[in-house]
Structure formats: C-alpha cells, structure tokens
Amino acid sequence: MSAGQTAGEVVRDLLDRWAASLAAGRADEIGALFTEDGLVQGFDPVPAFGPAAATAYYAKQPRGLTAEYELLSARWLGEDAIVAYAGVLFHRPDGDVPVYLTIVAERGERDWQLGHYHASKLIEA
Q1: Strands (E) located in 20-65
Q2: Check: CATH 3.40.50.150 for 7-119?
Q3: Where are the domains of the chain?
Q4: What is the DSSP letter of 46?
Q5: What's the pLDDT band for 124 if we cut at 50, 70, 90?
Q6: Which H helix or E strand runs over 24?
Q7: Is 10 exposed, middle or buried (0-12, 13-18, 19+ CB in 10 A)?
Q8: Distance between CA 82 and CA 115 in Å, rounded?
C-alpha cells in the first residue's frame, strides 16, 4: 500500500529514525516525527499531543538514552495508516527499562509520521 513497502518496512523506517534521533539526543527531530495532533504517552502521568509535546518530552530525558526495539506486529489500517506493536528496551544511565510500544503511523504529505505513541512500562508481577 506504500509504493511496494510492507507495513513492517514502513514502521521499521519510522522507528529507526526515532531510535537514531533518541541516541543522538535530538529531541526536535523526534518531535518532527509526530503529526500535529499525534498522541505522546510516554512515562508522564498525562498524555500530550503534537510535535512540540514530543520534543518537550524527549528533551527532558537523560543524556545517553538509547532504545533497541523488536517489531512484533504491524498491519495496515487502510492506505494511509498502520498500527504496530513493538517490544522496546530503553537503555538509561540508571538502568534498562523494558516497555511495549503501540504506535499508529500515518502517511503525511512528505513522509510517514507518528499519530499515536503509547509506551507501557513492563512491571514484574
């Protein structure tokens, strides 16, 4: 549905750009990955929306933060949207944090963007 790309290829490209910007500490580049009304639900107690919120969220993360992900599922919701689920291991200076990440990728005018980003921290039972 996207010039011969699979849903997984589209999502991997988007998450690769997110992870590279995160590792480089470029919060503004992460913000640019979000749609104008894109949900940003990281570890903050309340959700936020849009590129400015994503930039602010990632700007306050510790230096040296990186992320490794494993794409677990990606499927088309139509020609212009993909829902995906990934396991992510955030490497923080104070220790690793495993999460599950749910995203909705939306086709923008120039590229794919994050319309929904929800991280769920894994807690040992």
Answers
A1: 34-41, 48-49
A2: no
A3: 7-119
A4: S
A5: confident
A6: none
A7: buried
A8: 10
Task: Enumerate helices (H) and strands (E) in the chain, giving the number of each.
Answer: 3, 6
Tell me the C-alpha distance between 35 and 105, whole Å: 9
Average pLDDT score over the chain: 95
104 CB-near residues (< 8 Å, 6+ apart): 77, 81, 82, 83, 84, 114, 115, 116
**Is the pTM for the entire model greater than 0.90?**
yes
Residue type present at position 26: R
Biggest alpha carbon–alpha carbon distance for the chain: 44
pLDDT in tens, 52-77: 999 999 999 999 999 999 999 999 99
The pair of three-digit structure tokens given for residue 101, joined into one six-digit string: 């990440």
